[in-house]
Amino acid sequence: MTVKTFKQGVFLPHYKKYSEDQPITTIDLPNEVVIPLHQHIGAPCQALVRAGDRVKTGQKIGESAAFVSAAIHASVDGTVTAVEPRPYFTGTNVESVVIEVDPEQKEPVWPEQDLSSLDKDAIKAAIKEAGIVGMGGAAFPTHVKLSASKPIDAVIINACECEPFLTCDHRLLIEATAALVEGARLIRKVVDAPRVYFGVETNKADGIAALKQAIKDDETMEVVMLDVKYPQGSEKQLIKAVMDREVPPGKLPLDVGAIVQNVSTAIAIYEACRYKKPLYERVLTLSGDAAARPGNIRVRVGTPIGHIIEQCGGFKGASGEEARLNKLVGKIIMGGPMTGWAQSRLDIPIVKGTSGILIFSPAMVAKTEHRACVRCGRCVEHCPMFLYPSHIGMYAENGRYDSAVEWGAMDCFECGICVYVCPSNRPIVKFVRETKRHVAAARAAKAK
Ligand code: SF4
Ligand code: SF4
Asked: How big is the chain by its Cα radius of gyration, in Å?
């Protein structure tokens, strides 16, 4: 069995056992959903509704005339109570559509379409109309990514799910294999790629078996087994492992003839083309040592994380407020433990790119203050982008953002490895994010 990988990175404990064997379930709807109008890379959407409007599940409620943007849809039947800024998982406030959920919900009907009649423009149009973005966390609009004007040799379906704890894509590999394969075929049709690779880490044996069975008669598709190493699912590392091609700094996968889409996104593409179903719900993983009932759950966009936690049994050993007061919960993270965002409130809504909600006990969370760099070199040794994280952190910490950029801050994709290996607990990703914010603000000021 050939197992491929990339250089550097780290071997992390998987912590997948909490939820990997839990089939996908649904939960009750909350009383209210809060749907941000800017949950993607690109231009924010303008609201198409206002307070008092009645909306149906799947109805478009936000869009933008900009090419790089993604339409937003209602995730429930209900009444719009406000269009106003609401707290967002990154710590800012984002203009959002607030919907009071009807107690009676009509299950939407999505009539089947004939996939063979769709040409590449029709597929792209369906993807755009459905508001699909990269669901691995990047949230880049998919119709933009698939509008590459360069020749593409291969589509890579990213089924690595390399961050610890997350298992939703693993479950989809097993439970929605046919939809995933059809989604991959649609992507290939759009970009005219001769081959499709499914990159899967070897810790998903049942997923690998399901995929192999599903594509056994298609010689243009292949399952590539990958080492269980972080960040194997990052685009550049995945392309290196699967195709042995290097994406140079500042370049994109399409510059080396590759397009990467993750499992959830490929399935959303299938559903958009087959049923004209907009992206208003997703599967995510609820896990962590302080989660009472870890699992993989289908959730409507805009659902508050507190509601999801409560529906899954709450915090281990205590109810919500009690858990916080008694300090039973050390940290709540939206996303994976390496790239996710810590949350301090339970009313934050999940968005299209939310792959997980993780609840950790205080014992799982390091609380030591960061210290000065001791120049051990571990961050340099492990950085998958071959950067000097120590230098980036040092310069950014002192406000010397230009020097941080010179040392590659803009090439950092915030995988968190340098933070994980650092004996001085240096918050390098925080420094990188500060640098990127500074650069974006400087560019915006220059453009005025
Ligand atoms: S500098 Fe960026 S890419 Fe390199 S290890 Fe740190 S977070 Fe990852
Ligand atoms: S791992 Fe931490 S202490 Fe070591 S060189 Fe990097 S920033 Fe400095």
From this structure: 21
Shortest-distance atom of ligand 2 to CA 374: 3
Q: Are 262 and 199 in contact (CB under 8 A)?
A: no
Residue 242 tokens read as 């699967």
User: Ligand 1: which residue has its CA nearest to atom 4?
Assistant: 383
Mean pLDDT over 403-430 rounds to: 94
Check pLDDT > 80 for residue 208.
yes
Non-local (6+) Cβ contacts of 221 within 8 A are 181, 184, 195, 196, 197, 198, 215
Question: 420 in ligand 2 pocket by Cβ < 6 Å?
Answer: no
Q: Is the CB of 51 under 6 A from ligand 2?
A: no
Nearest-ligand number for the alpha carbon of 417: 1
The response to whether residue 428 sits with its C-beta less than 6 Å from ligand 1 reads yes
Could you give the CA distance from residue 400 to residue 393 in angstroms, rounded to a whole number? 10
Tokens of 176: 């929605």
The model scores a pTM over 0.85? yes
383 CB less than 6 Å from ligand 1?
A: yes
H helical segments located in 116-195: 120-129, 142-145, 168-175, 177-191
Instruction: Specify the ligand 2 atom closest to the Cα of 421.
Output: 1
Ligand 2: does its nearest atom lie under 6 Å from the Cβ of 423? Answer: yes
Looking at the domain that runs over 119-275, which CATH code has it been given? 3.40.50.11540
Residue 367 structure tokens: 């609380």
User: What is the tens place of the pLDDT at every residue in 232-277?
Assistant: 999 999 999 999 999 998 899 999 999 999 999 999 999 999 999 9
Indicate if the pLDDT at residue 140 is higher than 90.
yes
